[in-house]
Amino acid sequence: MSGQLAIVAAMITSAIAASGPRKTFQDKFFQRAGSTALAVALLAGMTAPGMAVATGEPEAAVGRPDLQEAAQAIVDAGFAGVQLRVHGQRGDWVGRAGVRKLGESAKPPTDGRFWAGSVTKTFTATVVLQLVAEGKIGLDALVASYLPHLGLDRRITVRMLLQHTSGLFNYTGEYYDDGTVTPGIPAAGKAWVDNRFRSYRPEELVRYALSKPPRFAPGTDQNYSNTNYTLALLLIEKITRHSYVDEVQHRILRPLGLRGTVVPGNRTQLPGPHAHGYYRYQAAGEWQTVDVTRQNLSLLAGAGDLISTTQDLRTFITALMTGKLLPAPLLAQMRDPHGKLGYGFGLFVQDLGPQCGGTVYQHNGSPPGGYGALMYSSPDGSRTLTASVTIGDAAIDPAVEFPKALSKLLQTVFCT
Known about the structure:
This protein is an alpha+beta fold. Helices cover 35% and strands 14% of the residues.
Protein backbone atom coordinates (compact mmCIF):
# COMPACT_ATOMS: atom_id res chain seq x y z
CA MET A 1 0.00 0.00 0.00
CA SER A 2 1.29 3.48 -0.83
CA GLY A 3 2.38 5.92 1.86
CA GLN A 4 -0.67 8.04 1.12
CA LEU A 5 -3.18 5.19 1.39
CA ALA A 6 -1.47 3.65 4.40
CA ILE A 7 -1.43 6.81 6.47
CA VAL A 8 -4.88 8.00 5.40
CA ALA A 9 -6.32 4.57 6.19
CA ALA A 10 -4.50 4.52 9.49
CA MET A 11 -5.61 8.01 10.43
CA ILE A 12 -9.22 7.41 9.08
CA THR A 13 2.20 30.99 -7.10
CA SER A 14 -0.11 32.26 -9.14
CA ALA A 15 -1.36 35.85 -9.29
CA ILE A 16 -5.10 36.55 -9.28
CA ALA A 17 -6.44 37.00 -12.82
CA ALA A 18 -7.23 40.62 -13.56
CA SER A 19 -10.97 40.21 -14.01
CA GLY A 20 -12.47 42.64 -11.52
CA PRO A 21 -13.39 42.39 -7.84
CA ARG A 22 -15.13 39.29 -6.51
CA LYS A 23 -17.22 39.46 -3.33
CA THR A 24 -17.01 36.34 -1.20
CA PHE A 25 -18.18 35.35 2.26
CA GLN A 26 -14.83 36.12 3.87
CA ASP A 27 -14.77 39.55 2.20
CA LYS A 28 -18.06 40.34 3.95
CA PHE A 29 -16.79 38.87 7.23
CA PHE A 30 -13.73 41.10 7.26
CA GLN A 31 -15.88 44.12 6.47
CA ARG A 32 -18.04 43.31 9.50
CA ALA A 33 -15.04 42.67 11.74
CA GLY A 34 -14.56 46.38 12.39
CA SER A 35 -10.92 46.29 13.44
CA THR A 36 -8.79 45.33 10.47
CA ALA A 37 -5.64 45.09 12.54
CA LEU A 38 -7.25 42.73 15.03
CA ALA A 39 -8.76 40.57 12.28
CA VAL A 40 -5.43 40.26 10.49
CA ALA A 41 -3.64 39.43 13.73
CA LEU A 42 -6.10 36.70 14.63
CA LEU A 43 -6.17 35.16 11.17
CA ALA A 44 -2.39 35.24 10.85
CA GLY A 45 -2.15 33.15 14.04
CA MET A 46 -0.56 35.90 16.15
CA THR A 47 -0.64 35.28 19.88
CA ALA A 48 -2.58 37.39 22.32
CA PRO A 49 -0.65 39.17 25.09
CA GLY A 50 0.17 36.93 28.00
CA MET A 51 -0.11 33.69 26.02
CA ALA A 52 2.79 31.28 26.48
CA VAL A 53 4.73 30.77 23.25
CA ALA A 54 7.41 28.24 22.38
CA THR A 55 9.03 28.84 19.02
CA GLY A 56 11.87 26.38 18.64
CA GLU A 57 14.22 23.83 20.14
CA PRO A 58 15.17 23.39 22.89
CA GLU A 59 12.90 26.11 24.33
CA ALA A 60 9.76 24.46 22.91
CA ALA A 61 10.40 21.29 24.86
CA VAL A 62 10.77 22.96 28.25
CA GLY A 63 7.11 23.72 28.96
CA ARG A 64 5.57 20.53 27.61
CA PRO A 65 7.80 17.49 28.05
CA ASP A 66 4.70 15.34 27.48
CA LEU A 67 4.35 16.72 23.95
CA GLN A 68 8.04 16.28 23.25
CA GLU A 69 7.74 12.67 24.42
CA ALA A 70 4.77 12.11 22.11
CA ALA A 71 6.71 13.58 19.17
CA GLN A 72 9.68 11.36 19.99
CA ALA A 73 7.38 8.34 20.06
CA ILE A 74 6.63 8.90 16.37
CA VAL A 75 10.35 8.80 15.59
CA ASP A 76 10.83 5.78 17.84
CA ALA A 77 8.12 4.02 15.82
CA GLY A 78 10.43 4.22 12.80
CA PHE A 79 9.67 7.55 11.15
CA ALA A 80 12.49 9.87 10.12
CA GLY A 81 11.19 13.06 11.70
CA VAL A 82 8.25 15.12 12.86
CA GLN A 83 7.47 18.80 13.29
CA LEU A 84 4.57 19.47 15.63
CA ARG A 85 2.47 22.51 16.54
CA VAL A 86 -0.12 22.49 19.33
CA HIS A 87 -2.45 25.23 20.49
CA GLY A 88 -4.55 24.87 23.64
CA GLN A 89 -5.39 26.16 27.08
CA ARG A 90 -1.71 26.22 27.99
CA GLY A 91 -0.76 28.36 24.99
CA ASP A 92 1.20 27.50 21.87
CA TRP A 93 3.86 24.82 21.68
CA VAL A 94 6.12 24.02 18.75
CA GLY A 95 8.46 21.06 18.72
CA ARG A 96 10.27 18.53 16.60
CA ALA A 97 12.01 15.19 16.79
CA GLY A 98 14.14 13.04 14.53
CA VAL A 99 16.26 14.31 11.66
CA ARG A 100 15.81 16.63 8.71
CA LYS A 101 17.62 14.26 6.37
CA LEU A 102 18.86 10.70 6.71
CA GLY A 103 22.56 10.52 7.46
CA GLU A 104 22.60 13.95 9.08
CA SER A 105 22.07 15.06 12.68
CA ALA A 106 20.15 18.31 12.08
CA LYS A 107 16.54 18.23 13.28
CA PRO A 108 13.55 19.03 11.07
CA PRO A 109 12.66 22.74 10.82
CA THR A 110 9.90 23.68 13.25
CA ASP A 111 7.83 25.34 10.53
CA GLY A 112 9.22 23.89 7.33
CA ARG A 113 7.27 23.28 4.13
CA PHE A 114 5.90 19.84 3.37
CA TRP A 115 3.65 18.03 0.92
CA ALA A 116 0.30 18.07 2.74
CA GLY A 117 -1.56 15.49 0.64
CA SER A 118 -5.27 15.04 1.33
CA VAL A 119 -5.47 17.98 3.72
CA THR A 120 -6.10 19.67 0.37
CA LYS A 121 -9.63 18.26 0.35
CA THR A 122 -10.66 20.55 3.21
CA PHE A 123 -9.46 23.57 1.23
CA THR A 124 -11.30 22.40 -1.90
CA ALA A 125 -14.51 21.71 0.02
CA THR A 126 -14.31 25.17 1.60
CA VAL A 127 -14.11 26.87 -1.80
CA VAL A 128 -17.09 24.86 -3.09
CA LEU A 129 -19.13 25.75 0.00
CA GLN A 130 -18.27 29.42 -0.43
CA LEU A 131 -19.72 29.19 -3.94
CA VAL A 132 -22.83 27.61 -2.41
CA ALA A 133 -23.02 30.49 0.09
CA GLU A 134 -22.83 32.94 -2.81
CA GLY A 135 -25.73 31.22 -4.58
CA LYS A 136 -23.59 30.18 -7.54
CA ILE A 137 -24.36 26.47 -7.14
CA GLY A 138 -26.41 24.21 -4.86
CA LEU A 139 -25.31 21.17 -2.89
CA ASP A 140 -27.90 19.06 -4.70
CA ALA A 141 -27.08 20.45 -8.14
CA LEU A 142 -26.26 17.84 -10.77
CA VAL A 143 -22.56 17.92 -11.61
CA ALA A 144 -23.22 16.75 -15.19
CA SER A 145 -25.20 19.93 -15.82
CA TYR A 146 -22.02 21.97 -15.29
CA LEU A 147 -19.57 19.54 -16.89
CA PRO A 148 -21.64 17.90 -19.66
CA HIS A 149 -18.64 17.01 -21.83
CA LEU A 150 -17.42 14.42 -19.34
CA GLY A 151 -20.43 12.09 -19.66
CA LEU A 152 -20.97 11.78 -15.90
CA ASP A 153 -23.79 9.78 -14.37
CA ARG A 154 -26.55 12.39 -14.13
CA ARG A 155 -27.48 11.27 -10.62
CA ILE A 156 -24.20 12.57 -9.15
CA THR A 157 -24.60 15.75 -7.12
CA VAL A 158 -22.18 18.25 -5.61
CA ARG A 159 -23.04 16.84 -2.17
CA MET A 160 -22.00 13.37 -3.30
CA LEU A 161 -18.60 14.62 -4.44
CA LEU A 162 -17.90 16.28 -1.10
CA GLN A 163 -19.13 13.29 0.93
CA HIS A 164 -17.47 10.58 -1.21
CA THR A 165 -20.80 9.00 -2.09
CA SER A 166 -20.67 9.36 -5.89
CA GLY A 167 -19.41 5.81 -6.42
CA LEU A 168 -16.79 7.01 -8.93
CA PHE A 169 -13.70 4.86 -9.31
CA ASN A 170 -10.69 6.21 -7.43
CA TYR A 171 -8.14 6.95 -10.14
CA THR A 172 -5.22 6.03 -7.86
CA GLY A 173 -6.70 2.54 -7.43
CA GLU A 174 -9.40 0.80 -5.44
CA TYR A 175 -8.67 -1.22 -2.32
CA TYR A 176 -11.44 -3.57 -1.25
CA ASP A 177 -12.32 -5.01 2.15
CA ASP A 178 -11.42 -8.53 1.04
CA GLY A 179 -7.85 -7.45 0.23
CA THR A 180 -8.23 -7.31 -3.53
CA VAL A 181 -6.99 -4.31 -5.48
CA THR A 182 -8.02 -2.77 -8.76
CA PRO A 183 -4.96 -0.83 -9.95
CA GLY A 184 -5.23 2.77 -11.06
CA ILE A 185 -2.74 5.39 -12.13
CA PRO A 186 0.54 4.33 -10.42
CA ALA A 187 0.64 5.78 -6.90
CA ALA A 188 2.74 3.11 -5.19
CA GLY A 189 5.82 0.96 -5.63
CA LYS A 190 8.47 1.19 -8.32
CA ALA A 191 5.90 2.29 -10.90
CA TRP A 192 5.21 5.46 -8.92
CA VAL A 193 8.89 6.08 -8.11
CA ASP A 194 9.81 5.89 -11.79
CA ASN A 195 6.95 8.21 -12.80
CA ARG A 196 6.79 10.57 -9.83
CA PHE A 197 7.71 13.62 -11.93
CA ARG A 198 5.02 13.07 -14.55
CA SER A 199 2.49 15.87 -15.01
CA TYR A 200 -1.24 15.16 -15.12
CA ARG A 201 -4.14 17.37 -16.13
CA PRO A 202 -7.24 17.24 -13.88
CA GLU A 203 -9.53 16.25 -16.74
CA GLU A 204 -7.12 13.46 -17.67
CA LEU A 205 -7.43 12.04 -14.16
CA VAL A 206 -11.22 12.20 -14.21
CA ARG A 207 -11.50 10.64 -17.66
CA TYR A 208 -9.29 7.79 -16.52
CA ALA A 209 -11.62 7.20 -13.54
CA LEU A 210 -14.66 7.31 -15.81
CA SER A 211 -13.13 4.63 -18.02
CA LYS A 212 -13.47 2.23 -15.08
CA PRO A 213 -16.71 0.75 -13.71
CA PRO A 214 -18.12 2.72 -10.76
CA ARG A 215 -17.79 1.14 -7.35
CA PHE A 216 -21.50 1.57 -6.60
CA ALA A 217 -24.53 3.53 -7.80
CA PRO A 218 -24.48 7.22 -6.83
CA GLY A 219 -25.69 7.86 -3.29
CA THR A 220 -25.99 4.19 -2.28
CA ASP A 221 -22.71 3.81 -0.37
CA GLN A 222 -19.57 5.71 0.61
CA ASN A 223 -15.99 5.21 -0.51
CA TYR A 224 -13.01 7.58 -0.24
CA SER A 225 -12.06 8.57 -3.80
CA ASN A 226 -9.67 11.23 -5.03
CA THR A 227 -11.76 11.47 -8.19
CA ASN A 228 -14.51 13.30 -6.28
CA TYR A 229 -12.26 16.20 -5.35
CA THR A 230 -10.56 16.48 -8.73
CA LEU A 231 -14.07 16.80 -10.15
CA ALA A 232 -14.74 19.48 -7.53
CA LEU A 233 -11.70 21.36 -8.87
CA LEU A 234 -13.13 21.26 -12.39
CA LEU A 235 -16.48 22.41 -11.04
CA ILE A 236 -14.85 25.39 -9.29
CA GLU A 237 -13.11 26.40 -12.50
CA LYS A 238 -16.31 26.05 -14.55
CA ILE A 239 -18.41 28.15 -12.18
CA THR A 240 -15.88 30.91 -11.47
CA ARG A 241 -14.13 30.99 -14.86
CA HIS A 242 -10.89 31.27 -12.93
CA SER A 243 -8.25 28.65 -12.24
CA TYR A 244 -8.47 26.56 -9.11
CA VAL A 245 -5.13 28.04 -8.03
CA ASP A 246 -6.49 31.58 -8.31
CA GLU A 247 -9.65 30.75 -6.38
CA VAL A 248 -7.77 29.12 -3.50
CA GLN A 249 -5.43 32.11 -3.41
CA HIS A 250 -8.23 34.67 -3.55
CA ARG A 251 -10.60 32.98 -1.12
CA ILE A 252 -8.31 31.36 1.47
CA LEU A 253 -4.57 31.94 1.21
CA ARG A 254 -4.50 35.71 0.84
CA PRO A 255 -7.29 36.59 3.32
CA LEU A 256 -5.67 34.38 5.98
CA GLY A 257 -2.10 35.40 5.20
CA LEU A 258 -1.01 31.83 4.48
CA ARG A 259 2.33 32.73 2.94
CA GLY A 260 3.82 29.26 3.39
CA THR A 261 1.00 27.50 1.50
CA VAL A 262 0.81 27.04 -2.25
CA VAL A 263 -0.99 24.91 -4.81
CA PRO A 264 2.13 23.66 -6.61
CA GLY A 265 0.76 22.65 -10.00
CA ASN A 266 3.70 20.95 -11.73
CA ARG A 267 6.26 22.25 -9.25
CA THR A 268 8.40 19.41 -7.92
CA GLN A 269 10.54 21.23 -5.35
CA LEU A 270 9.54 22.25 -1.84
CA PRO A 271 10.33 25.97 -1.42
CA GLY A 272 12.16 27.20 1.66
CA PRO A 273 13.21 25.11 4.68
CA HIS A 274 11.94 21.54 4.62
CA ALA A 275 12.66 18.02 5.80
CA HIS A 276 13.36 15.17 3.40
CA GLY A 277 10.91 12.33 2.88
CA TYR A 278 11.76 8.83 1.70
CA TYR A 279 9.99 5.92 0.08
CA ARG A 280 10.81 2.27 0.69
CA TYR A 281 9.73 -0.22 -1.95
CA GLN A 282 10.58 -3.65 -3.26
CA ALA A 283 12.08 -4.18 -6.70
CA ALA A 284 13.58 -7.36 -8.13
CA GLY A 285 13.12 -9.03 -4.76
CA GLU A 286 15.14 -6.43 -2.87
CA TRP A 287 14.09 -3.48 -0.73
CA GLN A 288 15.23 -0.05 -1.85
CA THR A 289 14.89 3.41 -0.32
CA VAL A 290 14.76 6.56 -2.41
CA ASP A 291 14.57 10.22 -1.46
CA VAL A 292 11.19 11.42 -2.80
CA THR A 293 11.34 14.98 -1.47
CA ARG A 294 10.93 16.07 -5.07
CA GLN A 295 7.69 14.80 -6.64
CA ASN A 296 4.88 16.07 -8.86
CA LEU A 297 1.52 16.20 -7.08
CA SER A 298 -0.51 17.10 -10.15
CA LEU A 299 -1.41 13.41 -9.74
CA LEU A 300 -3.79 14.51 -6.96
CA ALA A 301 -5.22 17.74 -8.41
CA GLY A 302 -7.72 19.26 -5.96
CA ALA A 303 -7.47 16.14 -3.82
CA GLY A 304 -3.92 16.21 -2.47
CA ASP A 305 -1.79 18.82 -4.24
CA LEU A 306 -0.85 21.28 -1.52
CA ILE A 307 2.38 22.52 0.05
CA SER A 308 1.94 23.99 3.52
CA THR A 309 3.36 24.53 7.02
CA THR A 310 2.13 23.62 10.49
CA GLN A 311 1.49 27.31 11.24
CA ASP A 312 -0.58 27.81 8.08
CA LEU A 313 -2.65 24.70 8.71
CA ARG A 314 -3.28 25.85 12.26
CA THR A 315 -4.40 29.29 11.01
CA PHE A 316 -6.64 27.71 8.37
CA ILE A 317 -8.40 25.16 10.58
CA THR A 318 -8.93 27.75 13.33
CA ALA A 319 -10.44 30.22 10.86
CA LEU A 320 -12.68 27.48 9.47
CA MET A 321 -13.89 26.28 12.87
CA THR A 322 -14.62 29.81 14.10
CA GLY A 323 -16.78 30.77 11.12
CA LYS A 324 -14.39 33.10 9.33
CA LEU A 325 -14.58 31.18 6.05
CA LEU A 326 -18.18 29.91 5.92
CA PRO A 327 -21.58 30.99 7.22
CA ALA A 328 -22.81 29.00 10.22
CA PRO A 329 -25.44 26.85 8.41
CA LEU A 330 -22.93 25.62 5.83
CA LEU A 331 -20.22 25.08 8.44
CA ALA A 332 -22.71 22.94 10.37
CA GLN A 333 -23.35 20.82 7.28
CA MET A 334 -19.64 20.57 6.59
CA ARG A 335 -19.12 19.17 10.11
CA ASP A 336 -22.08 16.76 10.00
CA PRO A 337 -20.68 13.20 9.73
CA HIS A 338 -22.10 11.03 7.00
CA GLY A 339 -21.93 7.33 6.27
CA LYS A 340 -19.50 4.69 7.42
CA LEU A 341 -16.52 7.04 7.08
CA GLY A 342 -17.99 9.65 9.42
CA TYR A 343 -17.17 12.19 6.70
CA GLY A 344 -18.75 15.60 6.32
CA PHE A 345 -17.72 17.92 3.51
CA GLY A 346 -13.93 17.67 3.39
CA LEU A 347 -13.70 16.76 7.09
CA PHE A 348 -13.59 13.59 9.14
CA VAL A 349 -15.58 13.75 12.38
CA GLN A 350 -13.84 11.82 15.14
CA ASP A 351 -15.06 11.09 18.67
CA LEU A 352 -12.22 10.96 21.19
CA GLY A 353 -14.57 10.24 24.09
CA PRO A 354 -15.84 12.44 26.92
CA GLN A 355 -12.56 12.32 28.80
CA CYS A 356 -10.86 14.00 25.83
CA GLY A 357 -13.44 16.65 25.10
CA GLY A 358 -15.53 14.58 22.72
CA THR A 359 -15.54 15.46 19.03
CA VAL A 360 -12.63 16.71 16.95
CA TYR A 361 -12.62 17.57 13.27
CA GLN A 362 -9.71 16.49 11.14
CA HIS A 363 -8.33 15.75 7.74
CA ASN A 364 -4.94 14.16 7.52
CA GLY A 365 -3.06 13.13 4.44
CA SER A 366 0.05 12.25 2.57
CA PRO A 367 1.24 12.17 -1.01
CA PRO A 368 2.10 8.73 -2.39
CA GLY A 369 5.40 8.68 -0.52
CA GLY A 370 7.62 10.44 1.95
CA TYR A 371 5.28 12.64 3.98
CA GLY A 372 2.26 12.66 6.25
CA ALA A 373 0.29 15.65 7.50
CA LEU A 374 -1.98 16.07 10.52
CA MET A 375 -4.68 18.72 11.00
CA TYR A 376 -7.02 18.45 14.03
CA SER A 377 -9.25 20.93 15.83
CA SER A 378 -11.79 21.07 18.61
CA PRO A 379 -15.22 22.36 17.50
CA ASP A 380 -14.51 25.89 18.72
CA GLY A 381 -10.94 26.01 17.42
CA SER A 382 -9.52 26.47 20.92
CA ARG A 383 -7.43 23.32 20.65
CA THR A 384 -5.56 22.42 17.49
CA LEU A 385 -2.88 19.97 16.41
CA THR A 386 -1.00 20.33 13.14
CA ALA A 387 2.05 18.32 12.19
CA SER A 388 4.20 16.93 9.42
CA VAL A 389 5.71 13.45 9.59
CA THR A 390 8.47 12.28 7.28
CA ILE A 391 9.01 8.65 6.39
CA GLY A 392 12.53 7.25 6.51
CA ASP A 393 14.18 3.96 5.64
CA ALA A 394 13.01 1.84 8.59
CA ALA A 395 11.43 -1.50 7.74
CA ILE A 396 7.99 -0.57 9.08
CA ASP A 397 4.43 -0.58 7.80
CA PRO A 398 3.06 2.94 8.43
CA ALA A 399 -0.47 1.54 8.60
CA VAL A 400 0.57 -0.57 11.60
CA GLU A 401 3.01 1.67 13.43
CA PHE A 402 1.51 5.10 12.96
CA PRO A 403 -1.83 4.53 14.74
CA LYS A 404 -0.02 3.63 17.96
CA ALA A 405 2.06 6.79 17.98
CA LEU A 406 -0.88 8.92 16.80
CA SER A 407 -3.09 7.65 19.62
CA LYS A 408 -0.54 8.75 22.19
CA LEU A 409 -0.22 12.14 20.53
CA LEU A 410 -3.98 12.74 20.40
CA GLN A 411 -4.37 11.80 24.06
CA THR A 412 -1.58 14.18 25.03
CA VAL A 413 -3.05 17.09 23.07
CA PHE A 414 -6.77 16.68 23.67
CA CYS A 415 -7.01 14.76 26.96
CA THR A 416 -4.77 16.89 29.19
